[in-house]
Amino acid sequence: MAGPATLLVSIAHQARALRTLQAAAAPHPLCTPPQPSHTQTFSTSRSGPARHSPGGAQELEEERKAPWKSPKEGEEGGDLSPPSPGEPRAERLARRETLRERALHSKMSRLAEATSQLVQVEQTLLLPLLQQHPLPLHPKDSIEFTNICSHMILQREGQQFERDLHEAHQCLKTIVEKLISSLAAFPSDSYIPVQSALRQILQNLLAT
């Protein structure tokens, strides 16, 4: 059995993992928006020959190669339709890569949200109950979760990054499942709100 001190250790590691996930989900520092001068050049090049402005020609070429961009990103005439049979292979690969990156970013954001919810539930609901009824806890799982997230942020992309993201997802799911199992061993009305909140977090994780 473990009391509040053990839970606080787990919460500390989960909070560290949360900060790591939030940092990994942030835009890459090299991905800076274009400078105003580039934007002005691009606007001019669209109405005139692209050769008059190397910067404008490059951005115009990028626009031609990326028809799937949304108008919300500052481009006009965005095309979100499926690839046509005659679409060049390079453009199909670029489209697929963009969709994959968006899916990974979405999964990481949901993982960070679930981690934040877990920390909040543990701090506000579970911690007060442990002062009266100690529960079986597994802080090693939270340590493992932190280590996976720390390793993941060093990758930022590639297959290893995807594997780390999957492992982090599975590890957090295990933490929540073990907490639910521990609470089930102590049938009491006081644990109902905690169990309900944890089941909701687990449901969100299973949906990702």
UniProtKB/TrEMBL annotation:
Domain of life: Eukaryota
Annotated region described as Disordered, given as residue ranges: 27-94
Annotated signal sequence range: none
InterPro entries: DLEU7
Biased composition (Basic and acidic residues): 62-75
Polar residues bias: start-end ranges: 37-47
Full protein name: LEU7 protein
